[in-house]
Amino acid sequence: MTDAPTAEQSALDAAQPDPGVVIGEDGLPRPAWASVDPLLRDYYDTEWGMPVRDEQGMYERISLEAFQAGLSWATILRKRPAFRAAFDGFAPDVVAGYGDSDVERLLADPGIVRNSAKIRAAITNAQATIRLRDKGGLADFVWSFQPDVTPEPVTFDQIPTRSPESEALSKALRTEGFAFVGPTTMFALMEAIGIIDTHLIGSHRRGSSGVWPK
């Protein structure tokens, strides 16, 4: 037999438009992960899930998603200014020319994630990005894997972590010479850049990308 809910819990439940979102001090419903930390809240409100359709922006997102593997996104977000400074703004033409001295420089930079394999993957992926220009460019290539439908999660546990499209994108990018682009990482990328909309149904950001209806 379960305990009866407290008056405080009942009031909290009644204040929520659905069980998947949390009402912020500003009265706006967000998922729990974006409801406390001001940095994550601002990222969620202004950037996450909005379309990225330019080459440099796409390359940066792929790079940061790769660095995030095994870490929290909050860690990467806090280090993003340092990443941008260290990687010359994630300009593919510049990063593609990095050599061993640049790898050593990056490994000595305390402002970024100092992982040799991920650093070298960023260089490899810059070179692959340049090669993809002959096939229409990185941004169009990634967007070509947009599915016909998007998830409609009410609660966080209803959000998938991969999909047939993210698996296909992962395979295609690897064929083009990219590294650290596994299907789970690519699903996170697709969420972050608006290819799919996994904002919870009750969130004030649902449908805000203009790519998918609410």
Automatic annotation (TrEMBL):
Instruction: Identify the InterPro entries for this entry.
Output: Adenine_glyco (IPR005019), DNA-3mA_glycosylase (IPR052891), DNA_glycosylase (IPR011257)
State the Pfam families in the record: Adenine_glyco
Superkingdom of the organism of origin: Bacteria
User: Which residue ranges does the record annotate as region Disordered?
Assistant: 1-26
**SUPFAM superfamilies linked to this entry:** DNA-glycosylase
Q: Mind telling me what this protein is named?
A: DNA-3-methyladenine glycosylase I
